[in-house]
Amino acid sequence: MFSSHGPSVRELAVQGLSSVERGYDLLAPKFDHTPFRTPDRMLDAVEETLAQWEGTFGSGLDVCCGTGAGTGMLRRLCRDRVTGVDLSAGMLAEAGRVHADDDRVDFVRADARALPSALADSYDLAVSFGAFGHFLPAERPALFSGVHAALREGGVFAFPIGAPIPPGSPVWWAVAGFDAAMRVRNAVWRPPFVMYYRTFPLSGVRADLRTAGFTVETVPLEHFGRRADGAPRWRLVLARRS
């Protein structure tokens, strides 16, 4: 839920009528007081699972780092350099403030679909949280190829992905309605604000990761339990550069 320190309805409306970059620049100072920030429960689950399955890492890359919620997790998992990358200067400013006293953390302003060549072959672990709805399916190959290039041989790209929402459930109708509203908004208003909840299915993501050169496995995040059919509610995707 939004706290009293979060954005007003008017501020959210202005953000929603801006571009993705400008919208997050406006939201950045209050972003951590919104439900859009990745919950600590998710960060802790991913950190624990990565430590159990992979151990520790050399250097880490936080793709679409926002205000740096995942950067702190990387800092604990990685022995060496940790870099956060984001398109929004406002979000990077907040992340830099949070991690100002850590000389092993640096931030780079860049589009995740075109990561700078200076980052190539530099990282052992890359993570991303809560950002994939900002990428259309046709943009995933560029995103995944850039992360693949940034990783060293054997490096891992890790991110959580939720189980499909049962069709007809209240949550399904809510996210379907949101996506429909965003498509209408983007059809009649410029600049577009790309944010969709149902454009990142595991099957398509797995295929695009393999095309980019990754081997892919998934690990249940048992912290969030299982559905009635026994499937995990959340999985951790482990895509390895091979």
Description of the molecule:
With 242 residues, the chain is an alpha/beta fold. It has two domains: 1-36, no CATH class; 38-164 and 201-241, Vaccinia Virus protein VP39 (Rossmann fold), CATH 3.40.50. It is built from eight helices and seven strands; from the N terminus they run H-H-H-E-H-E-H-E-E-H-E-H-H-E-E. Strands 3-2-1-4-5-7-6 form a seven-stranded mixed sheet, sandwiched between helices. Helix 3 runs parallel beside helix 4. The N and C termini lie far apart (41 Å). 32% of the residues are buried. The model has no long low-confidence stretch (mean pLDDT 93). Keywords: Methyltransferase, Transferase. Residues 61-155 form the Methyltransferase domain.
Features:
alpha/beta, Rossmann fold, 2 domains, 7-stranded mixed β-sheet, 7 strands, 37% helix
Strand content: 15-25%
**Segments where pLDDT lies below 50 for 5+ residues?**
none
- Count of DSSP-assigned helices: 8
Spatial extent as radius of gyration: 18 Å
> What is the CATH first-level class name of the largest domain?
Alpha Beta
What is the level-2 CATH architecture name of the largest domain?
Answer: 3-Layer(aba) Sandwich
Shape annotation: globular
What is the arithmetic mean of pLDDT? 93
Total count of domains: 2
Binned, the helix content reads 25-40%
| Order of strands in the sheet with most strands | 3-2-1-4-5-7-6
Spatial separation of the terminal alpha carbons: 41 Å
Strand count, sense and barrel status of the largest sheet are: 7 strands, mixed
Q: Please write the string of helix (H) and strand (E) elements.
A: HHHEHEHEEHEHHEE
Would you tell me which CATH topology of the largest domain applies? Rossmann fold
The CATH superfamily of the largest domain turns out to be: Vaccinia Virus protein VP39
Query: What structural class results from the helix and strand content?
Result: alpha/beta
Number of separate strands: 7
